[in-house]
Amino acid sequence: MKRFFIVLLAFVFAVSMAVASEKKAEEKGNNAKSAAAKVEGVSNSVAAAVEAVGNSMDAKATALAKKAAKIAEKAAKKVEKEAKKAAKKAEKEAKKAAKIAEKEAKKAGKNLKSVEAKIEDAGNSIAAQAEKVKEDVKKKMKDK
């Protein structure tokens, strides 16, 4: 009976680990999307600032502002690339954790079947012994 509960506990643990991994991967994906949105907002504000500076300053200031915008755009692309990379990694980890949890669940299921078979064998053995004792008692009663 202890084994049954241990196997059941292992199965529950494996399932809870899979759910936790899936939530973690989803969080990382959401964080990556949020970072991409922030980068896009920064890029838009830099572009707007460049345009305002270009309208109000001389050509040299405009050139410097455009250069700053290009640098900001490169940085934004780099951050977006990193966010995508992190999202892919999180998804990969989630899949890996799900596979492990699935293996553990299958293993727990096999162990459960094995335990059930052992319990059934033990029950059959006990029943057979009880029947034998019953017959022995009947014989002794007849002999007396």
What this model shows, in words?
- The protein has one domain (2-109).
- Helices cover 97% and strands 0% of the residues.
- The protein has helices at 2-56, 59-143.
- The chain contains two helices and no strands.
- It is rod-shaped and about 125 Å long.
- The longest helix is centred in the last third of the chain and has 85 residues, at 59-143.
- α1 packs antiparallel against α2 (59-143).
Structural class: mainly alpha
Helical fraction:
over 70%
Segments where pLDDT lies below 50 for 5+ residues? none
Our count of helices gives 2
Largest sheet: none
What is the molecular shape? rod-shaped
Q: Give me the count of strands.
A: 0
Number of domains: 1
Order of helices and strands: HH
Name the beta content range. Answer: under 5%
Radius of gyration: 34 Å
Average of the residue pLDDT scores: 73
Task: Compute the separation of the termini in Å.
Answer: 41 Å
